[in-house]
Amino acid sequence: MSDRRTISVTINGETFERNVETRLTLADFIRHECLLTGTHVGCEHGVCGACTILLNGQTARSCLMLAVQADGQEIKTVEGIAPNDQELHPLQQAFQDNHGLQCGFCTPGMLTTLLEFLENNPDPTEREVREAISGNLCRCTGYQGIVAAALDAAKRLQAGA
Amino acid sequence: MKPPPFTYHDPRSIDDAVALLAEKDNAKLLAGGQSLMPMLNMRFVLPDDVIDINRIDDLSYIRDEGDALVFGGMTRQRDIEFSDLVAQKIPLMKEAILNVGHRQTRNRGTYGGSLSHLDPSAELPTVSMAQDAVVSVRKKGGARDIAMADFPMGYMMPSFDLDEMVTDIRVPLWPEGHGYAFVEFARRHGDFAITSSAVLLDVADGGRIAKASVTVGGVWPAPLRVTAVDEVLAGETGSAELFTDVAEKCRDIDAMEDVYAPAWYRQHLAAVLTRRALAKAFSRAANGTEMTLR
Question: I want to staple A22 with a disulfide (CB 3.0 to 4.6 A). Which of B8, B139, B170, B197 is the partner?
Answer without folding.
Answer: B8
